[in-house]
Amino acid sequence: MNIRRLPRLLLTATLLLWSIGSYAAGNYSGPDRDENGNIVPTPKGEKCVEPTDVIRANHMKFLLHQRDQTMHKGIRTKQHSLKECINCHATPDENGKIARVFDEDSKHFCASCHQAASVKLDCFECHTDRPEDAFSLQKLPADHAMSERLAPAASRKPHVVLNSQGQQDEQK
Amino acid sequence: MSRNDVDSATGQNSSVNRIDQYRRHFVGGSIAAAAGLALAPGLILNSVQAKPDDQAVSNKNRWGLLIDTSKCAEGCTDCVTACNKKHGLNPVHGELTDAQWIRHVTLKNKQTGHQIDMPMMCQHCEFPPCVDVCPTGASFKRKDGIVLVDKHICIGCRYCMMACPYKARSFVHEAHTDQVPDAPRGKGTVESCTLCVDMIDRGDGTTACAEACTSGAILFGDLNDSNSEISRRLSSEGGRQLRAELSLNTGVRYQGL
Question: Which residues of chain A lie closer than 8 angstroms to B51, CB-CB?
Fold first, then answer.
């Protein structure tokens, strides 16, 4: 190989790698943001429990560690608890609705990012994707199902829930 | 203000005064220490203290229930309803496949017609057969005696359901989306009564079923604490284990059977 062609080759290789990298980075959008660049749905807290780059790269490790501590030792610190992530990030949108993880094209904080990154999300097959607030403020289907069991099938009425703005939502 | 300041302020002979002070200090300190020794064990044992969040559970406690079936009203399902509601156990197909953490059992003596209604749940054995048979280590006993399923590891083989002499465990057959924050549960895993482990860790000192029982038939407490109400009642009134011949040393005890 002619040694004089080496710089040109290196330059070509660098440009090629850079373009592939920037294409991948462009496709990775992170969580949904509004036109001002703020994360939607708006998180409740002021800032995350870890710096953004740390939590983005390591949230799964934090959660995995915390999971075993809580399950087997009863250690329930809040910093890396999935429940607290959800309490902060799963907030109602402008219509008072809380996005659900398994919705199509979900706007749920966890789901929006995982869909973009094409990483399967298993947590919410067991854990709830709704914050604790939702259970204390609204009458959720969890209660509905119980009343259904107690009431005879014939007398079942459409379940009415109030969203956070006090309007009535009808569910099946 | 230190002792030396007091001496100079009162203007007394400081060396005698200082000896007095030391004596008083020593005697006072010993009395306080003796009082502390006498009181401390009682104080520690008597209160159900909230465990700090970052502290692991220990075998200092052994949580359990005492159920007086003579107080169970006929057909009452308050504890079952409260448990289902707290843990978001919603009916899907009916009793054959739905999860039941507490079963409402009716025993009838055919000869005399005498009938007993009672709640049946995980008995939180000291030597749990479900833990012995679990191939993955998902079924385990916490240090404070609560028997749980780690659903992250559970593969849904259901050996534990076969091994349990109390039929206390259920399999989740359906995918769920309406779980509650403190009771994660999902398709393909086995589950059972957790003795409201989240409430215990918070230091609530009760369980959903004990709280809901208006007749006071269910008492929650620490079996390791000889001063707790559950231990005092067990020692004065007695209480039996179900299938005691299996020597599992259950954490749930019954009266009135």
Answer: 74
Q: Do B142 and A128 touch (CB under 8 A)?
A: no
- Other CB atoms within a 10 A radius of the CB of residue B59 amount to 10
Tokens 């407490």 belong to B221
Q: How does pLDDT run across B56-75, given as a tens digit for each residue?
A: 999 999 999 999 999 999 99
Cβ count near B235 (within 10 Å): 10
Domain B63-255 has CATH 3.30.70.20: yes
pLDDT in tens, B31-51: 555 554 555 444 444 445 678
A166 and A95 belong to one structural domain: no
Q: Are residues A104 and A161 in the same domain?
A: no
pLDDT tens per residue across span A93-106 = 888 899 999 988 88
CB B152 within 8 A of CB A125: no
Residue A50 sits in the same domain as residue A22:
no
* ipTM for this model: 0.77
A14 and A66 inside one domain: no
B178/A140 CB distance under 8 A: yes
* A51 shares its domain with A116: yes
**Is A70 in the same domain as A119?**
yes
Q: Is residue B79 within 8 Å of residue B212, measured between CB atoms?
A: yes
Would residue B228 be called left, alpha or beta, if left means φ above 0 and alpha means ψ between -120 and 50 degrees? beta
Residues facing B255 on adjacent strands: B68
Nearby residues of B55 by Cβ (< 8 Å), 6 or more positions away: A75
Instruction: Find the largest Cα–Cα distance for chain B.
Output: 92
User: Which residues on adjacent β-strands are paired with residue A142?
Assistant: none
Rounded distance, CA B253 to CA A151, Å? 33
Domain ranges of chain B: 3-46, 63-255
Which residues of chain A does B88 touch, with a Cβ-Cβ cutoff of 8 Å? 142
Question: Rounded to an integer, what distance in angstroms lies between the CA atom of residue A53 and that of residue A58?
Answer: 8
Are B153 and B138 spatial neighbours (Cβ–Cβ below 8 Å)?
yes
The reply to whether B152 touches chain A by the CB within 8 Å rule is yes
From the list B90, B180, B198, the residue facing A128 with the nearest CB is B180
- Choose among A163, A153, A95: nearest CA to A133: A163
Select from A75, A100, A132 the Cβ nearest to the Cβ of B181.
A132
Report, as ranges of residue numbers, the positions in chain A whose pLDDT lies below 70.
1, 19-30, 137-172
- Does B93 touch chain A if contact means CB atoms closer than 8 Å? no
Nearest residue to A41 via CA among A86, A82, A87, A90:
A90
